[in-house]
Amino acid sequence: MEQNIYDLQAEQLCQKIKHYLITTMGRVEEEAGDEEFYRAFCFALREEIMINWLAGIRTYEKENTRRLYYLSMEFLPGRFLSNSIRNLQALEIVQLVMKKMGRDFKVILSRELEPGLGNGGLGRLASGFLDSLSTLHLPAMGYGLRYQYGIFEQQLWEGVQVEKPDLWLLNENPWEFRRDLRRTSVQFCGISSSEEPKKFRDFEEVWALPYDYPIIGYKGDESFSVTTLRLWTTKESPRNFKIQKYNAGRLDQAAENTALTDVLYPSDYHETGKRIRLKQEFLLVSASLQDIIRRYKEKHSNFDQFADKVRIQINDTHPALAIAELMRLLTEENGVEWNEGWEMIQQIFGFTNHTILHEALEEWDLNLINYLLPKQYRIIERINHDFLDSLRKKEGVDEEMIRRLSIIENGRVRMSHLAIVGSHKVNGVAKLHTEILKNRVFKDFYLHFPEKFTAITNGVSQRRWLFNANPELTEWITKKIDTGWIKDFSQIQQLRDFAGDPTCQREFLEIKIKKKKQFLKFLVEHGNHRDRDGIQHKMELSLDSNALIDVQVKRFHEYKRQLLNALHLLMVFQEIKEGENRIPRLSILGGKAAPTYETAKKILLLFHCISRTIKKDPKASSKLQLIVMENYNVSKAEKIIPAADLSEQISLAGMEASGTGNMKFAMNGALTIGTEDGANIEMKESITEKWWPLSFGCRAEEISEMQKNGSYRPQDLLSHHPKIAQAVDLLRDGSLTENSREQEALNEIYYSSTLR
Ligand code: 26V
């Protein structure tokens, strides 16, 4: 009986696929390529979710619930198809469809180009939240930008990073819905007088067009929800093109606004102060807020309930202009009094900080804001004026303190200060990170507004990273503790009872070996390396699944200390050459360097040199191999993480706000080699020391002490640890390099690291 229903559903899906192939692509099944088949398949599957999507929106409208809006310049949703099938519990039916139609499921899934609309942790976290909100049936929506080019595609030409444009929109995207009716106008520049703000002239109008993406929640025993991710583009609005500028020969100016959402800024942590970036941020903010207000007005005739019905979370300071722009929309366009408006603002906004790195704290030149956003600038001035006035009424606030807290200072607008002043809560993303915000980065704010600060430790979606990426382990866990953990990960604790059981340990290790074999097969089939001209060559594996798979995958950054991993590898290399017996180790490195981050690029090149040196040494390569994977992204992470034995989370303590890769590896049963940083600390606490044996390094406090009294002396360390010294020496003695370009890079790494 059951089988018949499956068969019937599968048959219906087959018919729909054929239908879409013919009606939207003009292709018959037999001649359709994999990409066309993928697309038709998505169209067919899409039908199954539309009812739930619409029903959800209708229910929230009818019940007039409070909504949560997540504003973020970055989202990294990963591939939609595979995750959606899994969340819909439709895997069996889909596999049946593939069989009936003679297609290879894996190949079809891999045709999807993932939306790389983010740099790393911050963007992936935003998408993880949407997955959870959808699964939990909460009334929420994400707002972001539909970059034509997401994060660049990384190629490694003989170890040198070459950036290629990301072509995720090359083919029609079956997961997006263009919403012409929701097009919104955003205004830049212009002249107004403070007496008559309505008389605004000579402004520049840019049209933002939204595309909606369905974020499909997990279907447990009940029905599933679909949450909307709404992304704005200026590309598809012909009115954004300035024909007069074009005719005057200024092609760049003519196309500036149609190109506004063209590219994602690829430098995480580096504040560049670029004009186009400011325009992007304001576009997101203004279009989204107008959309939110429009939705509210459909149900209300005044703003009395606005602060009760709307909550907006801003993902780092990137959308912090929302505070000024909402103030403008309320007071100038909707007749709300200033003081009332300001009360509402503080109830509505919450602000998440994601880094303590000074370079990443956004500050905008006052003249630039005043030129591009004159109205918002005046509002920021008034917010700041009122804020500083209220501070002056407090006891013990001197002018030095006022200067430190001010939103505008030294010709610059400090976006974090605006975000803190305009929000009811400011959160760090792990306990340690929040303590550092309170005691160091935002110390003065914490002194006056301690109630605002709170720690919300990051999480990851166990649905993408375990349920979907590791079906084998999922099945095993579910046999032991049932399916509750798929929605509520705290239930994973029940596995504790099995941790010491030898049978369970054996079963677990068998699954791990299986995942390792799958990954090695993937490497053999798809892993290439490029020569100096970018030509790809097959990669050879010198080890098998008996080797420990030791992984560090994340953006390249000095504070993440890929260099420490490199030096350790060199030590292991020396030890093996000297005849030490070691468990074979396959080290996997992956991650992009910001295009302008020269030091990070040199460290990437160092890994290439180490990899080649190991490979050339027969003795070493029988025990050790280093593979640098090109273009690390969400899809690659899904393949690598389940196969890892060891997870490298070795940041300089105090610097990694939370980390989220750490969690993905741990839930796939890897052991963490980790410092006392970010969420590592809380993970260790709950996993307990017994299962966290590879902790090392100074604590954040010890590092601050060293920095304060200048007691870090690498030369002393080298003279006390000959093995480390020997490894470090390889950087400059020429044994790793084949040309002067390489040696110069390694020299620079050597001297910048040892001469402190
Ligand atoms: C800054 C900038 C500056 C302007 C250009 C574009 C851009 C893009 C990103 C950033 C800041 C990135 C901050 C970030 O990704 N932080 C990471 O957030 C993760 C989620 O909370 C957290 O797990 C990581 O520890 C943290 O490094």
Keywords:
756 residues, binds ligand 26V, ten-stranded mixed sheet, 47% helix, six-stranded parallel sheet
Write a structural description.
The chain is α/β, with parallel strands linked by helices and 756 residues long. It has 31 helices and 23 strands. Strands 1, 2, 5, 6, 7, 8, 9, 10, 14 and 15 form a 10-stranded mixed beta sheet that branches. A 6-stranded parallel beta sheet has the order 20-19-18-21-22-23, with helices on both faces. The protein has a 3-stranded antiparallel beta sheet with strand order 11-13-12. It is globular and about 80 Å long. The protein starts with a helix and ends with a helix. The structure holds ligand 26V. Ligand 26V is lined by residues 119-122, 125, 265, 267-271, 316, 354-355, 360, 429, 458, 656-660, 678.
What is bound: which ligands? ligand 26V
Q: What percentage of the residues does DSSP assign to strands (E)?
A: 15-25%
The share of residues in helices is: 40-55%
Question: Tell me, what's the shape?
Answer: globular
Number of strands: 23
Number of helices: 31
| Main pleated sheet | 10 strands, mixed
Structural class by secondary-structure content: alpha/beta
| Rg value | 27 Å
Give the arrangement of secondary structure elements:
Elements: H1 2-25, H2 34-63, E1 67-71, H3 80-87, H4 91-101, H5 105-110, H6 121-135, E2 140-145, E3 153-157, E4 160-164, E5 177-178, E6 184-191, E7 201-216, E8 226-233, H7 243-247, H8 251-255, H9 275-297, H10 306-309, E9 310-315, H11 322-333, H12 338-348, E10 349-352, E11 363-365, H13 366-372, H14 374-392, H15 399-405, E12 408-409, E13 412-414, H16 415-421, E14 425-428, H17 431-441, H18 443-448, E15 453-455, H19 462-468, H20 471-481, H21 502-526, E16 528-530, E17 536-538, E18 548-553, H22 562-577, E19 585-590, H23 598-616, H24 618-621, E20 624-629, H25 634-640, E21 646-649, H26 661-667, E22 671-674, H27 680-687, E23 694-695, H28 700-709, H29 714-720, H30 722-729, H31 740-754
Parallel strand pairs: 1-2, 1-9, 2-8, 9-10, 10-14, 14-15, 18-19, 18-21, 19-20, 21-22, 22-23
Antiparallel strand pairs: 3-4, 5-7, 6-7, 7-8, 11-13, 12-13, 16-17
Helix pairs in contact: 1-2, 1-4, 3-19, 9-11, 11-12, 11-14, 13-14, 22-23, 22-30, 23-31, 29-30
This protein binds ligand 26V.
